[in-house]
Amino acid sequence: MDVKKLALLIGALIIAAVTAVMAKSMFAGAAAPQAVAAPAAQPQGPQVLVATRPLPVGTMVDAEAFRYQPWPEGLVQEAYFVQGQEGSADPQSLIGTVVRTEISAGQPATRGALIRPGERGFLAAALGPGMRAVTVPVSATSGVAGFVFPGDRVDIVLTQQVAGGGDGSPLNVSETIIRNIRALAVDQRINNVDEEGNQVAQNSSTVTFEATPKIAEKIPVAQTIGQLSLSLRSLADN
């Protein structure tokens, strides 16, 4: 092979190699870019206290009833609870208050919509429409050793003496006269909590219930017949 042909062959090989390297670089540059997660957007604007679920009139507020969420600044009203501003409220501090004006899910809470224990009209606000408040005296044994808390539901059991014993002595009988009635207050306490916010069982002398007018008439009569005791219901039964 002469020198001219050898030079042409070597030149062709060099050109082919350079072309391959350039093509590889072009395809690598055209590959789809890697997806990069964008940082989460930080909430902008004021944080307003809103209801997490519908809260009808008379609802006792619990720890999950409210939360703060962003709200358009131009729609914030003076009656709203705005986080960080004077008069704002921690949702935990509202536990035990009662809804006086119905609040829809997602609707901001207003100061006039909630009433705190001890304020005038609190117990009346805790009653549902058409309901009455009636108080029953209890002891450590008849009151479930103080484990009935406001908001719990109980059955009321009447124990009395009836004639019919074989030797002429009366018989002691018990029957449930009222089922699934809601406790509003224990003694004069709307909630039994310690300084850390934990429920604490305390022996009490009275329990106030929410009752229909007919049941409110029935309970005083039952107290004259015999002894009333409470039977605590499971939360799953309510």
Explain how this protein is built.
- By secondary structure, the chain is an alpha+beta fold.
- It has three helices and nine strands.
- The protein has helices at 3-29, 122-126, 213-225; strands at 47-51, 66-70, 98-99, 114-115, 132-137, 153-162, 171-186, 206-211, 227-232.
- The strands form three sheets. It has a five-stranded antiparallel beta sheet with strand order 5-8-7-6-9. It has a two-stranded antiparallel sheet with strand order 1-2. A two-stranded antiparallel sheet has the order 3-4.
- The longest helix is centred in the first third of the chain and has 27 residues, at 3-29.
- It is elongated and about 140 Å long.
- The protein starts with a helix and ends in a 6-residue tail after the last strand.
- The model has no long low-confidence stretch (mean pLDDT 82).
Please state the structural category: alpha+beta
What do the pLDDT scores average to? 82
Query: How would you describe the shape?
Result: elongated
Q: What summary fits the major beta sheet?
A: 5 strands, antiparallel
Give the N-terminus to C-terminus distance in angstroms.
Answer: 102 Å
Number of helical regions = 3
Low-confidence stretches: none
Strand order of the largest sheet: 5-8-7-6-9
H/E topology pattern: HEEEEHEEEEHE
The number of E-state strands comes to 9
Strand content: 15-25%
Percentage of residues in helical conformation: 10-25%
Specify Rg, calculated over alpha carbons: 36 Å
